[in-house]
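Minutes, project check-in

Agenda point 3 was the complex the collaborators sent over. CS summarized: two entities, 228 residues total, and the question is how they sit relative to each other. Sequences were read into the notes so everyone works from the same version.
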Amino acid sequence: EVQLVQSGAEVKKPGESLKISCKGSGYSFTTYWIGWVRQMPGKGLEWMGIVYPGDSDTRYSPSFQGQVTISADKSIDTAYLQWNSLKASDSAMYYCARWYGGNSGDHWGQGTLVTVSS
Amino acid sequence: QTVVTQEPSFSVSPGGTVTLTCGLSSGSVSTSYYPSWYQQTPGQAPRTLIYSTDTRSSGVPDRFSGSILGNKAALTITGAQADDESDYYCVLYMSSGISVFGGGTKVTVL
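CS then shared the predicted structure for the full assembly.
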């Protein structure tokens, strides 16, 4: 069974750094893209970017390029979403998903809630 | 940046049929955009319904179907049920290798 398990909720202060994770199991982790999706409170889904764990190739939405870093460690079947300096506007639910063929999500993680507040 | 358009809301009667669409601010949607559709109920992670235009994800009832209608991708719910009341999002895959979500459609069953 394909599963994506995300790390737990985080509460951070503005300016702090953060790395959240998404661990895949039940499939060959290196041969499927992993995507990250943001959902701000009461808002819609936003595609942030994807990483191919096999060779760490990444693609970013222009809206998120330079704002976050997406990476993967294939040795532990885990993908990451990272911020160097959080802002209050980064407060949101973040979902990872297996991004089939690089073009659509097929399995989803449970979500990680990030709260950034002074 | 390309904008993916969806109707903000739709209402359907139980047992009725509703077709949601997914378009582009400029241009037509074709199968080359690999349109996909997702259902999300409040407080839950999204669930994949349709990928590659018309392929149902595992376990998705056949009352959900995907297609291209005119210059847009479409999701049709046939025989709507109360638990189909959700937000529905489409995604289009761009030639640059990135994907873009539509703004979502809130479907009410009443």
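Noted in discussion: The two ends of chain B are 36 Å apart (CA to CA).
Follow-up: revisit at the next meeting once the mutant set is ready.
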